[in-house]
Amino acid sequence: MGLRLVRVDDRLIHGQVVAIWLKTLGAKRILIVDDRTARDEFLREVLELAAPAGVVLEVHPLETGTQRVREASQADEPVFVLMRSPVTALALREAGVEFDVLNVGGIGAGPDRKPLYRNISASPAELDAMRRLEQMGTRVELRIVAGDKPVDFSSADPG
């Protein structure tokens, strides 16, 4: 089974993740790969409280998260991988972690960000990371909830 979904969502764990994605995926483990979250003890505690009962939550910085995601990809249990940015996804791929699809479900608007699709915006570095992922053979899809039709990044790329 391994990696059921590799997703970018800058909110990490929230209602859509808990109510929809976990149920759809049948995952009982969430791996978050994010340096900032891994360093922030309070945020980690909030995320642990937000995770539903029976779901194991692991939070790793990129350095150790790369190996942990690689291990999870070979495991029998279904795993849901979350990160805040496609830049992290690119770093995982460049480190040899294989995944066919990157789901981008939420990156908020802000300075130096271009709107892509609904509530998804991206900085120049994030746009470049998604383009590079596609060049490496990973399909990048924009999809907020499981019931939405995926939109290919390449069709929304403002670039």
Strands of the largest sheet, in order across it?
A: 3-2-4-1-5-8-9
Helicity level:
25-40%
Computed CA radius of gyration, to the nearest angstrom:
14 Å
SSE string, helices as H and strands as E:
EHEHHEHEHEEEHEEH
Discrete helix count: 7
Give me the CATH fold name.
Answer: Fructose Permease
For the secondary structure, the number of strands is 9
Largest beta-sheet characterization: 7 strands, mixed
Structural shape: globular
CATH class placement: Alpha Beta
Q: In the CATH hierarchy, what is the architecture at level 2?
A: 3-Layer(aba) Sandwich
The class by helix and strand makeup works out as alpha/beta
Binned strand content:
25-35%
Q: Please identify the oligomeric state.
A: single chain
- Can you tell me the residue ranges where pLDDT is under 50 for at least 5 consecutive residues? none
Q: Can you give a write-up of this model?
A:
With 159 residues, the protein is of the alpha/beta class. The protein has a single domain, classed as Phosphotransferase system, sorbose subfamily IIB component (Fructose Permease). It contains seven helices and nine strands, in the order E-H-E-H-H-E-H-E-H-E-E-E-H-E-E-H. It has helices spanning 15-25, 35-39, 41-50, 62-73, 86-94, 124-135, 153-156; strands at 3-9, 29-33, 56-60, 79-83, 101-106, 114-117, 120-122, 139-142, 151-152. A hairpin with an 8-residue loop joins strand 8 and strand 9. Helix 5 (86-94) runs parallel beside helix 6. The termini are far apart.
